[in-house]
Amino acid sequence: RLLRWQMAGITAIAFLVLGAVIALTATDPQARAEIAGTAFICTLYFGAAYLFLSCLKQFSPALQSTYRLFTLGFIVGAFTVIINLVITILYTDALSPWGTLWPVTLGFPVSYLLFYFASRRLALLQEVKSWTLNWKLVLASCLLLTGLFAGLPHGRALYELDGIPGALCFFNVLIIVCYNWALFKAWQQSSERYKYSTRALTISTLTGLFGWVLMAGRTFVDTDTAVLLSNISNLFTVCALIFLLRAGYMLNKLSRE
Predict the structure, then answer these.
(1) What pLDDT score was predicted for residue 27?
(2) What pTM was computed for the model?
(3) Over pLDDT 70: what percentage of the chain?
(4) Is the separation of the CB atoms in 66 and 125 below 8 Å?
(5) Cα(211)–Cα(179) distance, integer angstroms
(6) CA–CA distance, 162 with 111 (Å, rounded to integer)
(7) CA–CA separation, 224 vs 215, rounded Å?
(8) What's the first-to-final CA gap in the chain, in angstroms?
(9) Does residue 181 have a pLDDT over 90?
């Protein structure tokens, strides 16, 4: 019962933040929706981090270190979103600063690299055999393909609202594909006890992948279409975070049995 109240509290706080940003942000409706959605996502990230951290002491040292990596990825991603959101709000009606400030968006690939190594560790605990666990091969392949993508017209262009380069979005897509497969294999080989939390993590990363695929295409389309893609991407990200919260809920439930 306490765990359910905690889940309800996380959801309520996220909606309060969403409403506050919509009410306090003075900009056009499309941009306001994107900013509000980003704030909502950020709040859910912190909620997921809380759920994972609050139950780790009940598990084995190997699982503790694995899920701490996941949690560190949540926190890095959430703080990157916060910084991105603050800059977006401050410069809503001014000249976009992303030409010099875009490096702050590098927090996104850092968070996904943490997710990759956490997923890799979880798969190794399940004795999974896959090329996606060869981190040197994975990183080399992702960097090479990202470099090729950056060579395309607009491949290095910055999206005007949040400053994320198209090539960086493409890198995120590649690394998510790799660790989503590792999680899928880990889910297949999980015991009945851990199957549901691992499945929720797998579905979460797959749904988030769809969001980043849309983000990668924004610099190749007109502004109105790019905003639409961003809003749809936010919906996929919210779905991913719902499953992420589900995974944290299942781990908490296991820790209290």
Answers:
(1) 62
(2) 0.84
(3) 93
(4) yes
(5) 16
(6) 17
(7) 14
(8) 13
(9) yes
Structure tokens at 151: 């060579």
Apex CA 90: angle with CA 85 and CA 96, to 5°?
Answer: 90
Q: Are 176 and 205 in contact (CB under 8 A)?
A: yes
Closest CA to 208 of 59, 108, 99, 91: 108
- Positive or negative torsion for Cα 67, 199, 112, 218: negative
By the 8 A CB rule, do 3 and 252 touch?
A: yes
Can you tell me the distance from the alpha carbon of 198 to that of 67, in angstroms, rounded to the nearest whole number? 11
Chain-centroid distance, C-alpha 107: 11
Distance CA 93, CA 166 (A): 23
How is residue 104 written in tokens? 């702050």
Alpha carbons 54 and 77: distance in angstroms, whole number: 19
- As given in the structure block, the two tokens for residue 254 are 């296991």
DSSP string, 214-234: HHHTGGGS-HHHHHHHHHHHH
What is the per-residue pLDDT across 186-211, written as a single tens digit (0 to 9) for each?
998 888 888 888 899 899 999 999 99
Identity (one letter) of the amino acid at 173?
Answer: V
Q: Among 72, 69, 213, which Cα is nearest to 149's? A: 213
Tokens of 40: 């909502």
* Beta bridge pairs of residue 158: 165
Q: Are 51 and 79 in contact (CB under 8 A)?
A: no
Query: How far, in Å, CA of 36 to CA of 137, rounded?
Result: 38
Q: 4: which residues sit within 8 A by CB, 6+ positions away?
A: none
13 residue type, one letter: I
pLDDT at 75 over 90: no
